[in-house]
Write a structure and sequence with these properties.
Layout (H helix, E strand, L loop, with lengths): L5 E3 L5 E11 L5 E4 L4 E6 L4 E7 L5 E12 L4 E7 L7 E3 L4 E3 L1 E5 L9 E2 L6 E4 L12 E7 L1 H5 L6 E11 L1
Parallel strand pairs: 2-14
Antiparallel strand pairs: 1-2, 2-5, 3-4, 4-6, 6-13, 7-12, 7-14, 8-9, 10-11, 10-13
């Protein structure tokens, strides 16, 4: 039997688990402004769930693809706010906070994680989906739990919220 907070590696040795990270990825999501004459609609948002994560397993990545539609078509900006103190990107647990990194890629930026989001700082020049039906590649949010942070994290359940605000430029 494997005790709570532990799993077996390939050699049968116990590996401590951090527990599971459940994380609501975005709370947002409609902007309408008579002043700008634009509507922004964000669709296909889901939770990002890391599942069980080993503290000695290296950095962990999880991504979510979603759609950002702007009517009429125009660039937009995105601002991220974490649920930690001072809007930091942190997951809360019973005994400690776990910092993470967030990356954003709009529909036109190709492969890779995207641009690192900074708390409460606008990321400008983002391009929306090609049409109102999420045409073309979707936008992507990637969350990274760094290896050195995971190595210091105690087993448990952690969660947090990342609020994304999408607005016209």
């Amino acid at each position: 039997m494997i005790p709570y907070g532990e799993r077996r590696d390939k050699r049968g040795a116990g590996v401590p688990l951090i527990g599971w990270f459940r994380w609501l990825s975005a709370v947002l999501l409609f902007w309408s402004s008579a002043a700008s004459g634009m509507d922004i609609v964000v669709t296909r948002l889901n939770d990002i769930d890391f599942g069980n994560v080993a503290s000695n397993g290296g950095r962990q990545l999880a991504s979510m693809a979603f759609c950002v539609n702007v009517f009429p078509q125009a660039p937009y900006q995105i601002v991220a706010y974490g649920s930690g103190p001072a809007n930091r990107f942190e997951l809360g647990g019973e005994t400690q906070q776990v910092r993470y990194r967030a990356f954003y890629r709009d529909r036109a930026r190709g492969n890779g994680r995207g641009t690192r989001l900074r708390r409460a700082r606008p990321l400008v020049g983002q391009r929306p989906s090609r049409d109102g039906n999420c045409g073309g590649p979707p936008a992507q949010l990637t969350i990274v739990l760094p290896r050195r942070v995971l190595a210091r994290t105690t087993p448990g359940s952690y969660s947090g919220t990342l609020t994304l605000t999408v607005a016209p430029e």
